[in-house]
Write a structure and sequence with these properties.
Blueprint: E1 3-8, H1 13-22, E2 27-31, H2 37-43, E3 48-51, H3 58-63, E4 69-72, H4 82-88, E5 92-93, H5 100-115, H6 118-126, E6 146-150, H7 154-165, E7 169-173, H8 180-186, E8 188-190, H9 193-199, E9 202-205, H10 219-224, E10 230-233, H11 242-250, E11 256-259, E12 279-281, H12 290-308
Helix pairs in contact: 1-12, 5-7
Length: 322
């Protein structure tokens, strides 16, 4: 009898085709939408969950008594009820940096979009305004600017490498510091968190969302930053206090922000940040690319096969590591 893998939520047919083509022999892939009666029915004899993080609480784990692994296709796991997973004794694994290239590219995209006024220039052209003032507000270069990376994991390291190609000076803060040799190889230097905020031209956030990083950037931290500074967030919305960010941007306490994530997703249509000209927004789209679906599934199925063979899974989230 084949072991059942519950795959959710439903994805476009082309993505499902990739998943089915990569499903290892001896496993059955069942595609369902989370929270539906069909989902809970299929969960009763499912041994593995493969998919994106959704609201996965006690009801989910109680409905899946045979579950051996929750294997996410993303890095983030803030929608998973960690305590419910611990109580059910089910490991939860994220995806081993499969989207690191995509997110790092997107972070650079947002930096360029903000510094080059991409959105406002596009809107000007569409409105029939050809070559409006490029001096107010100014357009800036990336070269020579100091980039401060908060969180130097898989994504942060790739951001550092890409920033080096723009001749940026790169500094970082992380609770786990690299060795001097590793810093030299990557071309980065460690600074204290407050030092990073005070001295960076661009601050790019690459941390997981947990109790220590929620509202990591608030009014106090924003007040430390340069008036010309830009903040980039491609990790999780609640890492920034949005009310404090709105005030700092409105009062020109900092220059601009590029955000791929928000506290409430999707945000309300009348969100205050929508009224500001110095904010560039994308809809939590940094991670998924056509190329990395294959990498995500490869990592996921590899981990499922590890567990099926009696070995410990890789990439178990820190809260559930023994």
């Amino acid at each position: 009898m084949m072991a059942k893998i519950l795959f959710a939520p439903k994805q476009p047919d082309a993505v499902v085709d990739i998943a089915r083509s990569m499903t290892p022999p001896g496993f059955e892939l069942v595609v369902v939408d989370p929270g539906t009666p069909e989902f809970y029915k299929e969960a009763t004899d499912a041994e593995y969950y493969l998919g994106l993080a959704r609201q996965m609480g006690g009801e989910f784990f109680r409905s899946a008594p045979k579950l051996k692994l929750v294997q996410l296709l993303s890095a983030g796991y803030d929608r998973v009820d960690v305590e419910a997973a611990r109580k059910a004794k089910v490991p939860v694994a994220n995806n081993g940096g499969a989207n690191a290239i995509a997110v790092s590219e997107h972070a650079i995209l947002l930096m360029l979009a903000v510094l080059k006024r991409l959105v406002s220039f596009h809107n000007d052209v569409v409105a029939g305004k050809w070559r409006p003032s490029i001096a107010d507000p100014p357009v800036y270069e990336m070269s020579g600017r100091t980039l401060g990376i908060v969180g130097l994991g898989n994504i942060g390291k790739k951001v550092a490498r890409r920033a080096a190609a723009f001749d940026m000076r790169v500094q970082y803060y992380d609770i786990a510091r690299l060795s001097e040799d590793q810093e030299d190889a990557l071309g980065v230097r460690f600074v204290l968190f407050t030092e990073l905020l005070r001295t960076s031209d661009i601050v790019s956030l690459h941390v997981p969302l947990d109790d220590t990083t929620r509202n990591l950037i608030g009014a106090r931290e924003l007040a430390m930053m340069k008036k010309s500074a830009v903040i980039i967030n491609t990790c999780r919305g609640p890492v920034i206090d949005e009310s404090a960010l709105y005030k700092a941007l409105k009062d020109r306490q900092i220059a601009a922000a590029g955000l791929d994530v928000m506290v409430e997703e999707p945000p309300s249509p009348n969100h205050p940040l929508f009224t500001l000209p110095n904010v560039t927004l994308t809809p939590h789209s940094a991670g998924p690319t056509w190329e990395n679906w294959t990498a995500r599934f490869r990592n996921g199925f590899d981990n499922i096969e590890r567990v099926a063979a009696g070995r410990a899974p890789k990439w178990v989230i820190p809260e559930l590591q023994a």
